[in-house]
Write a structure and sequence with these properties.
By secondary structure, this protein is mainly α. Helix content is 56%, strand content 11%. Strands 1-2 form a two-stranded antiparallel sheet.
């Protein structure tokens, strides 16, 4: 994995034991997507909408992020 930050390159090496850590590897590869989902959830929490709307929206966002379909 290579990440560029402020013009500098960073390298990271991750090790996982197959098959025990297969889900951990998938989660590590999806880290950027998970961060986007968390930011969407944070935005929803800060909205002035009803709690029912917020919880329904969060449930949908999480379901889709984890590979479900609407």
């Amino acid at each position: 994995m290579m990440i560029t930050h402020k013009g500098e390159k960073m390298h990271a090496t991750l090790s996982f034991a197959y098959p025990d850590d297969e889900q951990k590897l998938k989660d590590a590869l999806a880290g950027e997507s998970y961060r986007i989902v968390l930011e969407k959830i944070q935005d929803l929490v800060e909205e002035s909408a009803s709690m029912t709307y917020k919880l329904t929206a969060i449930k949908t966002i999480v379901h889709v992020a984890l590979g479900g379909e609407i």
